[in-house]
Amino acid sequence: MYFKSFFILILTGIVIFSYSCKKPVNPAPVTKLSDVKVKVTFTPQKTSRAILTAMTKQTPDEYGIALKKVVLIGKNGTPDFPLFNQNNLSSSYTFDFKDKNTLHSLLKGASIPNGEYQSIKIFIYYLQMKIPISTTNRGVGKRNIRIYLSDDAETENGQHQPGDMTQINSTGTELGWMLGEGQLPDMDPIKPRINAYTYGGNGVSWYNFAGKSGKDFGPFGDTAFFNHAPHPVFYTKADFNFVQNSGTTLVVDLNINNCWQFEDRNGDGNFGPQDIGDTVNPTKWHMELPKLTVGQQ
User: Fold this and answer.
1) Rounded distance, CA 64 to CA 61, Å?
2) What percent of the chain lies above the pLDDT cut of 90?
3) DSSP string covering the chain, please?
4) pLDDT digits (tens, 9 = 90+) for 11-42
5) How many angstroms separate the Cα of 285 from the Cα of each of 15, 52, 224, 270?
6) Residue 12 contacts by C-beta under 8 Å, 6 or more apart in sequence?
7) I need a surface site. Which of 74, 179, 197, 273 has the fewest CB within 10 A?
């Protein structure tokens, strides 16, 4: 008997990146920038949205993001300025974060020309989070779980579809696909992809993930999300609606507090096979995309 309730996961409340910015006092475009940096905040924002309030919520110990391209969007005749633009998704720049004090520069090359810039556009390959996963035989362990938002299978004959979730080891090697076939008893990753996301690994009968065929999509995200998400390369855009100051460094802040949320059916505080037993009521789980704010320093 296959793990049917696990395969029809309910993912409510999923949104493309949210933007939480102060009401602008000076909405004029930014005219002088020396650098653009990215950081991750692990603690709550002063104001935060309640998503799936009945769920157990966890904040990853570590977080990572892979970016193919980042572009400053010009205004009033100022041309758009790419901070970088990699040739393909597989060569995306990766940025890792373990605390709120880590900032990575997104400027890869020439200095930013003076001009009028009104927003930033970020093209994302994948997100990665380190979270505890419980097992039947090996207790609880921290794992790096990667969520692909872009489609490298379509763009460069890669192995990943949007919504794929994989496990990554400490050296960055991809061990296999998650939240599909063979998750009992120890939530072990399965490869290749066709074995992970077809019933019994038969390579023919694809799972249905919340209205999406496992042939073209992974378990993350519902049909509403992927009907609106940019494809094949996912991107998000943020306008510069912050209160400006004299700073010349733009800071993109990704807040990931309580982003991993799930039904803790066995009450042990962690997500695992005991939470996803065969039942007519599918297990609810959710990975909230970062709350994005932009400011100056």
Assistant:
1) 11
2) 73
3) ---HHHHT-B-TT--S-EE--PPPS--PPB---SEEEEEEE-SPPSS----STTSEEE--SSEEEEEEEEEEEE-TTPPPEEEEE-SSGGG-EEEEESSTT-EEE---SSPPPSS-EEEEEEEEEEEEEEEEEE-SSS-EEEEEEEEE-S-HHHHHS-S--TT-EEEE-TTS-EEEE-SSTT-TTT---BSSHHHHSBGGG-SSSB-EETTEETTT--SSS-HHHHHHS-SSSEEEEEE--SPP-S--EEEEEEE-TT-EEE--TTSSSSBSGGGS-S-SSPPBEEEPPPEEEEEE-
4) 433 334 544 444 444 457 899 999 999 999 99
5) 14, 9, 16, 12
6) 52, 222, 284, 286
7) 74
**Stretch 216-243: mean pLDDT, rounded?**
92
Cβ–Cβ under 8 Å, residues 41 and 100: yes
The total number of structural domains that make up the chain = 1
Work out the pLDDT band at 54, boundaries 50, 70, 90.
confident
Structure tokens at 69: 């391209």
Closest CA to 260 of 82, 56, 81, 24: 56
Report the distance separating Cα 223 and Cα 209, nearest Å.
9
Question: In the structure encoding, which two tokens stand for residue 102, read together?
Answer: 């880590």
Residue with more model confidence, 2 or 171: 171
Supply the range of the domain harboring residue 236: 4-296
Q: How far from 144 is each of 10, 19, 193, CA to CA, in Å?
A: 22, 26, 18
Task: Give the residue from 34, 121, 46 showing the smallest Cα distance to 297.
Answer: 34
CB 48 within 8 A of CB 291: yes
Average of per-residue pLDDT across 43-69 = 81
